[in-house]
Amino acid sequence: MGEEPTWAELLVSFLVMGVIPTVVGVAVIVSLVGLTLWGRALLRRRSGRTVSGGN
């Protein structure tokens, strides 16, 4: 059997276990917001063309 981890090693492992899901979650949220804004911009451009093209 190995030695028991020190408090510093435990602290680092808890920090790593907390940081990884946070980074992944933030990346997912930023991606969804970016895709939403991009999709709305595309829809706005298309609707703008049909309105101006019809006049």
Question: Could you characterize the architecture of this molecule?
Answer:
This protein has 55 residues and is mainly α. The protein is 87% helix and 0% strand. The protein is built from one helix and no strands. It has one helix spanning 7-54. It starts with 6 loop residues before the first helix and ends with a helix.
Span between termini = 81 Å
pLDDT below 50 for ≥5 consecutive residues: which ranges? none
What's the rounded overall pLDDT mean?
Answer: 87
Query: How many β strands by DSSP?
Result: 0
**Broad shape:** rod-shaped
Please tally the helical runs, counting DSSP H or I stretches of 4 or more residues. Answer: 1
Helical content band: over 70%
SSE run: H
Briefly note the structural class of the backbone: mainly alpha
User: If you compute it from the alpha carbons, what radius of gyration comes out, rounded to the nearest whole angstrom?
Assistant: 24 Å
Biggest β-sheet: count, sense, barrel?
A: none
Proportion of residues in β-strands = under 5%
Quick description:
The protein has one helix and no strands. It is mainly α and 55 residues long.
Itemize the secondary structure elements and their pairings:
Elements: H1 7-54
